[in-house]
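In this supplementary section we document a worked example of the pipeline. Step one takes a protein sequence of length 140 as its only input; no multiple sequence alignment statistics are reported here. Step two produces a three-dimensional model, which step three serialises into structure tokens for compact storage. The input and output of this example are shown verbatim.
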Amino acid sequence: MPVEIQEFHRVLPGEVREQLHKVYVDMPASKDADNVIANIEQSLQTGARYYAGLFNGRWICGVLVSGDLQDRNMSYLAVHPATRGRGVAERLVNEVRALEGQRGSGYLSTEFDVTDADLVSIFEAIGFIAHEGGLYRCQL
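The serialised model returned by step three reads:
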């Protein structure tokens, strides 16, 4: 599935914000999509970056990357329900790894519920190593 990944900092354009809001509404773990988008936009004002995936003119996935340059953290990973199981999350995370590595970042980490077998298999398959308490980390 050919997904074009774009990077945003400082602000999410209106169309991107609207379409990704719908993706977060459909995420099982997301309790409040409005709050998620507000947290993402606030983080962008403090130096974080948001990576979003475009497919057939629609924004279908995204992830926030924050933290200092040496140790970057991914949060708010979301993939549109219609595109789950097609390698979209792997494509997005691999592109984030490449772009953050080019920026000089040292490590990329994420934390999630380790009982989510799909996420465990995705992150382990693309080189993240499990640490205590649901933390997964990889060197860039």
